[in-house]
Records
---
Amino acid sequence: MRILITGGAGFIGSALVRHLIENTEHEVLNLDKLTYAGNLESLTSIASNSRYEFVQADIVDQAKVSAVLARFEPHAIMHLAAESHVDRSIDGPSDFIQTNIVGTYSLLEATRAYWSKLPAGEKEAFRFHHISTDEVYGDLHGVDDLFTETTPYAPSSPYSASKAASDHLVRAWQRTYGLPVLITNCSNNYGPFHFPEKLIPLVILNALKGKPLPVYGDGKQVRDWLFVEDHARALFKVVTEGKVGETYNIGGHNEQQNIDVVRSICALLDELAPQHPAGISQYAELITFVKDRPGHDLRYAIDASKIERELGWVPDETFQSGLRKTVQWYLDNQEWCRRVQDGSYQGERLGSTDPKDLIA
């Protein structure tokens, strides 16, 4: 297969690209705008592979996308390109509306024009896989409730509202035009190459520098954590074996309170990086509670039984095993971290570890 991936230089996208090149024989074209969160250094290990190609483009640019489709002739599109940081969406929602809604519309229209001209057999086999988030469902109030594929949408932030809108567009293009689509909604991802504004890498890197470890509110918000390499396997499973028109929730079966995540990271660092910064004997001494963010969802939890039942996917990693691998990766890849934090990975200073950048 030839698979076009949008947002393939991002955190989840780069994990998917690496998985496809390292573990399958498929060809991959990575189309990415390279915003601050896009990092080609996350793809160094496969960049020279003959089955991989990178094109810098904005999905809003329908003409450019159409030209790429006409040349590459993909059998499937996996759409991950999105603005995804909740705090950034609160501070400035415009980019989220433009990329997540207008960009998805432009991509759908370019795809529809390309797909409509395919020969009958290729048209039937083609897939448009839209990768979304569990945040479109809002939050859960009961301790036993789970998000299912039929949970009503109730987004809380500009980010989740823009992703909900993009989900609705994808479904409408299937219902109205017959475009063969698949949608997946995933829980919180973590793992290697995660941009350091997100909770787990932020805590790791702040701790190593002896900086405060910011935790929103009381830290009791609950998230279901999914190791990014497990997610990449699930996405490939869906695009190759999923049923057209279906939605699949992808979760890690790992519900954790944010404060427990931070404490677990501190305990692992005490073990793996025992040379503590000056003034502390344990990394947990750096935990700092900060003002909660507006509209902060209390609990997310995914019911991933459908993808297990119908496609046979289950995560390989527990939270404990995945977190240990993640912490060790950041310890072993300090140069990658430095280049992201000081902005040199794209030639300008963009790094920030201000507490407001915390996301969970």
---
Amino acid sequence: MFRPRTTQLLWMAMVVALAAGAAVRAAEQPFLSTGLAGQSLAPRAEEPLKLTLALPNSEDWSQANISRLVIWTPGNQKSIVPDKPAAGLKELSYTFKEPGYAMIILSAGPATAKDTKNAWQRTPYCTKLVLRVGPKEGEPRAQDYVRDPGLTGKVGQKIEVVPYFSPVHLLTGDDLPVRVYFDNGAQSGATVVAIRPDGSVDTQTSNATGIANFRITLPGRWIIRYQKEVAQEGTYTGELVFEVPAGSRQEGGQS
């Protein structure tokens, strides 16, 4: 028979374990959600895309410090930072007019950084979402769908994961080298993780030039993430989020 103290300790251990499990599950989500079914990053043209924040302290669009929210499409960049969003605003809506590849760039900070000096620099949460915007229902795939908006270059985030090859062309069996940056400097010896579609994690260490290499083993949504602890500032996180279609090089699949 357990003594009361032993029972109390077991309950405390269970609570800690459950909290840790919740934290792990939350960490498997990018900082920006598209509102599409499952983990899909494939909206359709002319259909509103719902953008929801998933920041650590659950800030909504009216609370978070949003310094940058940009839609990249081939040959075009458009800022959609909300202007004076209503209190409690959970979703932003954006509609792509044409099919093709796109990237959403978000640099955000906690509510405590909003309206402070140099608030635009206080953005520890940086994400890049690569989207495959499909044609309207019933329409054939457009020719320019194979173009991408230049996904292999830096976009100027405080912390950033930059792919060496465009993620839109990846298939299972491919390798994806990425370079990680902080304050525009490549980071050597950094721990970089890839969260696979099944929730498993691949951990790599960047080399002397800041490059880490990942094998694409599964179709579905991937999150490649780099975190850096900065004294007196906290943790900065940069992530690259993309979706790998079914098929492989060996099967003759196409992206």
